[in-house]
C-alpha cells in the first residue's frame, strides 16, 4: 500500500521569574505527549508503528484508537471518487483533516450518518466494510464469529452492503471463523465468488481481507 496517515502538539516552557539562566531538560516526544494526555493507552500500543500506518504522521494527522480515514485515503489515491460514512462526527472531522494532508480531500465525500439507513440510497462499484471488532479483547477469542461484529452482526452488515453492489470487501479479525465468512457468499443468488487474503505488517498477522463478487 502507499503512504498512510497524526500530529502531536508541543508546548514551550515559559521563562522563570528573574534573570536566572534557564536549564530545560528535553523530554522525548512520546513522554511529553503522554504527560499532556494526548496518547491514550490504546494509541500508545501503535506508537512504534506510526510511520508504517501513517507515513505523514508528523504533518498534521489526527487519529484516535481506531485510526481515522486511512482506508478512504488509500481508495481515493486509486479511485476517482470515494464515499466515506461514519456515524461519529468527530471521526469524520479527523478523517477530513487527514485527507487534506494527503491531498485527496476533493476525491472523498465524507458523510456523518448511519450506514444501515443510508445504504438503500447509495450506489457504487465496490463497498469496503471495516466494522468494529470490539476492541483489543478480540484477540482473546479463539473463534471470532459474525455475531461479535459491531454495531450489528456480520450478516446484517453484509446484507446492507448488498443493496449497494455485490462487489464487497470486508476487513475482519485474523481469528475470524472462516466457515461463517464463506456463508456470506451464499446470501446471494447465485453465490458470490470469494477470495481471502491474510494481511501482515512487518511480519505480524493483523487481519484478513475478504473479497466477494470479483472485487479483488
TrEMBL record:
Coiled coil: none annotated. Residues 19-31 have a biased composition (Basic residues). Residues 1-33 are annotated as: Disordered. GO terms for cellular component: nucleus. Gene3D superfamilies: Vaccinia Virus protein VP39. Residues 1-12 have a biased composition (Polar residues). SUPFAM superfamilies: S-adenosyl-L-methionine-dependent methyltransferases (SSF53335). Signal peptide: none annotated. GO terms for molecular function: RNA cap trimethylguanosine synthase activity. It catalyses: a 5'-end (N(2),N(7)-dimethyl 5'-triphosphoguanosine)-ribonucleoside in snRNA + S-adenosyl-L-methionine = a 5'-end (N(2),N(2),N(7)-trimethyl 5'-triphosphoguanosine)-ribonucleoside in snRNA + S-adenosyl-L-homocysteine + H(+); a 5'-end (N(7)-methyl 5'-triphosphoguanosine)-ribonucleoside in snRNA + S-adenosyl-L-methionine = a 5'-end (N(2),N(7)-dimethyl 5'-triphosphoguanosine)-ribonucleoside in snRNA + S-adenosyl-L-homocysteine + H(+); a 5'-end (N(7)-methyl 5'-triphosphoguanosine)-ribonucleoside in snoRNA + S-adenosyl-L-methionine = a 5'-end (N(2),N(7)-dimethyl 5'-triphosphoguanosine)-ribonucleoside in snoRNA + S-adenosyl-L-homocysteine + H(+); a 5'-end (N(2),N(7)-dimethyl 5'-triphosphoguanosine)-ribonucleoside in snoRNA + S-adenosyl-L-methionine = a 5'-end (N(2),N(2),N(7)-trimethyl 5'-triphosphoguanosine)-ribonucleoside in snoRNA + S-adenosyl-L-homocysteine + H(+). It holds the Pfam family Methyltransf_15. Belongs to the methyltransferase superfamily. Trimethylguanosine synthase family. This is Trimethylguanosine synthase. It comes from Hibiscus trionum (Flower of an hour).
Amino acid at each position: 500500500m502507499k503512504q498512510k496517515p497524526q500530529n502531536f502538539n508541543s508546548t514551550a516552557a515559559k521563562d522563570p521569574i528573574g534573570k536566572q539562566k534557564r536549564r530545560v531538560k528535553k523530554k522525548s516526544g512520546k513522554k511529553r505527549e503522554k504527560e499532556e494526555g494526548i496518547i491514550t493507552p490504546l494509541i500508545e500500543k501503535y506508537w512504534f508503528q506510526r510511520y508504517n500506518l501513517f507515513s505523514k504522521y508528523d504533518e498534521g494527522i489526527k487519529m484516535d484508537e481506531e485510526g481515522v480515514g486511512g482506508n478512504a485515503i488509500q481508495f481515493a489515491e486509486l479511485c476517482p471518487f470515494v464515499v466515506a460514512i461514519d456515524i461519529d462526527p468527530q471521526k469524520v472531522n479527523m478523517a477530513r483533516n487527514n485527507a487534506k494532508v494527503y491531498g485527496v480531500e476533493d476525491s472523498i465525500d465524507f458523510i456523518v450518518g448511519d450506514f444501515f439507513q443510508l445504504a438503500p440510497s447509495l450506489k457504487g462499484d465496490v463497498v469496503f466494510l471495516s466494522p468494529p471488532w470490539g476492541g483489543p479483547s478480540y484477540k482473546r477469542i479463539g473463534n471470532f464469529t459474525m455475531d461479535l461484529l459491531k454495531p450489528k452482526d456480520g450478516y446484517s452488515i453484509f446484507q446492507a452492503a448488498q443493496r449497494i453492489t455485490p462487489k464487497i470487501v470486508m476487513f475482519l479479525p485474523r481469528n475470524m471463523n472462516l466457515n461463517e465468512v464463506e456463508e456470506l457468499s451464499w446470501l446471494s443468488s447465485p453465490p458470490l465468488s470469494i477470495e481471502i487474503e491474510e494481511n501482515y505488517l512487518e511480519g505480524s498477522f493483523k487481519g484478513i481481507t475478504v473479497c466477494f463478487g470479483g472485487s479483488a
